[in-house]
Automatic annotation (TrEMBL):
All residue ranges annotated as the HTH araC/xylS-type domain in the record: 687-786
Residues annotated as transmembrane: 12-36
Keyword DNA-binding found: yes
Source organism per UniProt: Paenibacillus phytorum
Keywords: DNA-binding, Membrane, Transcription, Transcription regulation, Transmembrane, Transmembrane helix
Top-level taxonomy: Bacteria, Bacillati, Bacillota, Bacilli, Bacillales
InterPro entries: Homeodomain-like_sf, HTH_AraC, HTH_AraC-typ_CS
Record protein name field: Helix-turn-helix domain-containing protein
Length: 789
């Protein structure tokens, strides 16, 4: 048998051998493919890597250059600088020109603190050929000597740069550092608009090349090639190499191609990558030696040959070892099953198919056996529970053995019985189509029994069975207190009733017996549950019936003489307090029907009942916040007419009329209270919003959306509430607060318009001027001049 299976054409040995050979040849094929495509793939990857690294350089440098442009913007539009360059006051007060220039120098010192990444900056004034530096003002010659003087950068070259017209851009320059050493620097030159065809001034902002190169020196491209930053005129602003570009470098290709090859005069080949910044319009160029690439390609080629050789040698050995080792357990399994099961297929057979058929056959037999045993066990257990509840157990069979046989554990002291009767099952049956009626009832009973047993088993032990078209459940309680056990049974009944109704459209009536000690009293509990269910069928009542509650209710009715329980009184009081006339009339009708459907109640007891109902109305009025007797003092005839009634019918009519007037009164009182509460809440919300604006007006992100998010309300809805109450929108309120605060800042002499704008939360000085003029009718500059005068 074993040899027959091993050597036939469909044996798993042949399948495994083919699989191992395919797996063995796979790395060989991959190696060949890598060898053929390595050059092309490597080239693409290096191009992508260089492009990515160059973009990183661009992002880092653009942030630096953006900082220079930002500083230039703040200096250019500084109010004091604009006044110095374009104001006519110096014609009348020429001496103030020098004073204002020194004031601007003080302002520039503040900018120096705010921009630590800027190495040096100044404003060159063409009017008096001087330069305003942070903290000082110098003549042009003195400024050149202290800032730029070198053989590589002459005074005339410097003058040509700072006196040119209509220029804005980056150029290479030299400057003298704090250590008196000459530094290569990148300068951002920005000239002011001309006046009378003469340049007024020029901003010069410088960042040393060493700072720029130091920010990106850890990138891989610095270790293998050259990185350069060029301006629009192809001047080198920064480079990681001291050598300049060859004279024959093809600058024109930088405009037309992002990648090309270049061979220098020494026959050294380079691969050139370049990208242009969309912000600063600068070119970022990387030159990589081509020999670097082919070293990697040679390494990959050698690695490919080595891996192919190892794969062929090692794979052949492992194929033989694992093929022999993996087949041994399969062969033993086939040999074991073949002794008890014959092959049903032809001679050409696969071992796994044989094992699958053998295992499937065995599992099917086991499942059929367990299914039959479970069916019989369920029927016998239900018969045992029925006899236990009815007290008809066979005395010859010990009960402990029976409980063990049916896996039932009843080791607690307290027992109770719950009965379940289906009131309405049509909706459930309509959901089940193409099923016989008998099977529908079995499914319904199965669902109820499983749900009840699961709910009880959470804390206790419960076993359900079908008894005479009724479902009964024996409950073995773990609670020690009798009242707690009763409440626990009511909770389980309510939960089961709610779940079955909402999930399966099964409506139940549930009866619960008293709590009994010892298993011998279970038949008595079963009779009590039957009596409770009979009360429901004969007299009607709630859907959950407790034997103890029914006994108490019967005793109370015989003692008081009329029906008006505390629960009904609470419901009646709640309906009257809310002014729900319909609900109150329904409860009143129920009380009347309960008391007067059965003859025998006297006129005196009837008057007591009526006065009790009137007392309930008084309590309801008192809970609305008014004086208890105020309503009846204003309406004395209502009580008089009720007390003078001679018949029960008259009392009912008077009581209904009184109920209608009381409900109208309480409803109006309730609506008034709700209106006052809403007005107070709205006033509190407006005060909180105003306080929030006063506290956060300096935050530039303060807007209607931010306020709405803080108060967990929609921004549009909150703005509407605010406008309805105050008469102005939230945005107008924010602007008014900011303008009032800015007026206080403008009153200080050292505060400029820009400082006031930023101090109250405006990012844009033009927006501040526009809002200020809208609110105050004048510009902030005019306002500051007025208050200074």
């Amino acid at each position: 048998m074993r040899n027959k299976i091993f050597f036939n054409g469909q044996s798993i040995v042949l399948t495994w051998m083919i699989s191992y050979i395919v797996i063995l040849l796979l790395p060989v094929a991959i190696g060949l493919l890598l060898y053929v495509e390595s050059s092309k793939t490597l080239k693409e990857e290096i191009q992508q890597a260089n492009d990515s690294l160059l973009k990183q350089v661009r992002e880092i440098m653009d942030n630096q250059f953006k900082t220079m442009e930002q500083l230039n913007f703040e200096i250019t539009w500084n109010v004091s600088v604009q006044e110095l360059l374009y104001s006519n006051k110096y014609e009348a007060f020429p001496k103030e020109y020098r004073y204002d220039a020194y004031q601007i120098a003080r302002i520039l010192s503040m900018y120096k603190t705010s921009y630590p990444l800027i190495d040096s900056f100044y404003i060159y004034l063409n009017k008096d050929q001087s330069a305003i530096l942070p903290t000082t003002v110098r003549t042009n010659s003195f400024a050149y000597e202290t800032l730029h003087m070198s053989d590589a950068f002459s005074f005339s070259s410097w003058q040509a740069i700072v006196t040119r017209s209509n220029f804005k851009g980056f150029i290479p320059m030299y400057r003298i550092g704090d250590d008196n050493k000459l530094q290569k620097t990148v300068a951002y030159i920005s000239t002011y608009p001309e006046e009378h065809n003469k340049p007024l001034a020029t901003n010069v902002i410088m960042v040393d090349q060493s700072r720029i190169i130091g920010a990106i020196q850890n990138m891989e491209i610095f270790n293998k090639g050259h990185v350069l930053i060029l301006n629009n005129e192809n001047q080198i602003l920064a480079s990681n190499s001291a050598d300049s570009l060859p004279a024959d470098f093809p600058f024109d290709k930088l405009e037309s191609s992002s990648n090309f090859y270049y061979t220098d005069s020494n026959a050294e080949k380079y691969e050139v990558f370049n990208i242009q910044s969309p912000l600063s319009k600068l070119k970022y160029v990387s030159m990589m030696p081509s020999t670097v690439y082919w070293k990697k390609a040679a390494h990959i080629r050698n690695l490919t040959y080595t891996s192919m050789a190892i794969s062929l040698l090692g794979g052949g050995i492992l194929t033989y070892v694992f093929l022999r080792r993996n087949y041994n357990p399969v062969r033993r399994l086939v040999h074991a099953f073949s002794k008890k099961q014959t092959l049903q297929s032809s001679k050409r057979y696969n071992e796994f198919h044989f094992l699958q058929e053998a295992v499937d056959s065995t599992l099917i037999e086991i499942a059929n056996f367990k299914s039959k045993m479970e069916q019989q066990r369920h029927i016998v257990r239900s018969h045992f529970i029925e006899k236990l509840l009815k007290g008809k157990l066979d005395s010859q069979i010990p009960i402990d053995e029976a409980l063990t046989t049916f896996e039932m554990k009843l080791d607690r002291q307290d027992f109770a019985v719950m009965l379940f009767v289906v009131d309405k099952s049509e909706p459930f049956f309509e959901r089940i189509n193409h099923t016989p009626e008998e099977d529908k009832w079995k499914l319904l009973q199965f669902i109820i029994m499983n749900v009840v047993e699961d709910l009880i088993s959470e804390r206790h032990r419960g076993y359900a069975a079908e008894i005479d078209d009724t479902l009964a459940c024996l409950v073995n309680l773990t609670m020690e207190d009798g009242n707690s056990s009763k409440l626990e049974l009511l909770r389980i009944a309510d939960k089961a009733q709610t779940f079955l109704s909402s999930t399966y459209d099964i409506n139940l009536t549930i009866s619960i017996s008293s709590i009994h000690e010892h298993l011998a009293n279970v038949p008595q509990a079963f009779l009590e549950a039957l009596d409770s269910m009979a009360f429901k069928l004969v007299m009607g009542g709630p859907e959950i019936l407790s034997y103890d509650d029914l006994q108490t209710s019967t005793t109370c009715e015989s003692n008081t003489g009329y029906y008006y329980p505390a629960q009904i009184e609470q419901q009646f009081m709640y309906a009257v307090k809310l002014g729900e006339l319909e609900e109150a009339q329904m409860i009143l009708t129920e009380i009347m029907n309960k008391n007067f459907d059965n003859p025998g109640i006297s006129v005196s007891l009837t008057k007591c009942l009526m006065l009790n109902l009137v007392t309930t109305m008084m309590k309801s009025i008192s809970e609305t916040g008014d004086i208890q007797e105020s309503f009846f003092i204003r309406n004395p005839k209502l009580l008089d007419r009720l007390l003078c009634s001679k018949t029960v019918h008259d009392m009912q009519l008077q009581l209904s009329d009184m109920l209608e007037q009381v409900c109208v009164y309480t409803s109006a009182k309730r609506q008034h209270t709700i209106s006052l509460t809403r007005q107070k809440a709205l006033e509190q919300l407006v005060n909180e919003v105003n306080a929030y604006i006063e506290h956060n007006y300096t935050d530039a992100n303060l807007n209607v959306t931010m306020i709405g998010s803080h108060f967990n309300r929609k921004a549009t809805y909150l703005s509407k509430l605010f406008k309805d109450y105050v008469g102005e929108g939230l945005l107008d309120r924010i602007n008014k607060v900011r303008i009032e605060k800015s007026k206080q800042l403008l009153g200080r002499q050292e505060q400029s318009v820009g400082d006031a704008a930023y101090g109250v939360g405006f990012n844009d000085i033009n927006a501040f001027i526009r809002v200020f003029k809208k609110v105050e009718g004048i510009t902030p500059g005019k306002y500051k001049e007025l208050i200074e005068k």
